Amino acid sequence: MPPYDTIIELKARLREQFPTAHSGQGNAPTPQVTTGVPVLDEHLLTRGMLVELVDSPMGGGALMLSECLRHVSKRGDYAALIDAIDQWDPQSMALPDLNFLLWVRCTQTSQVLTAADLLLRDGNLPLLWIDFSLCSIRQLRQIPNSVWFRLRALGHQSRVTCIILSPGKLVGCADLSGEIRFSPSIAALNQLRSELLPHVSLHITRKRLYAPRSDMDEEHRLHA
Question: How far does Cα 166 stand from its chain's mean position?
Fold first, then answer.
């Protein structure tokens, strides 16, 4: 096997010899992701991020989820929803919007994690929601931290943005973590679901700079 210095020199020569083929690697900005939810979009999500949203007792996460899925379908994109306990209500969306959604209905945590692993590896659906919001937080905290690190790594590699809706803090390695706050007045509860979205806010508890690993990063890692 050639030494690391030889590998780095070879890659450098290939970039010089074929500049067009390598012009986009490591330098191209990561595409941004818009969800249609203003309190989430203001934090400039990018492809491949792992996001955890801790839901409020009043269920503001369901409003954010529905609005995001509607927004994605309106621009002709596709998304996936892994429903952890098969409780999501498809009637919250118009029938045409459902044509752009892959709905994975689960009854066990192990099914959720298997489905997430497959969809993140596949990479054909750029946006994935995992809805744990109605699950037992005690049960979810039995999931090893290594599982979240693996899912984050898969998303970074495939450029699939994964948003986890949870009942409590779970994913310590998330690129962006926030707590959903939703306290509508009694009068507001008579409004349509779409009209309740302005009552939802997001308190960010963690935000780390995420950028895809470039060839140069890999060279430094090997050289080290």
Answer: 13
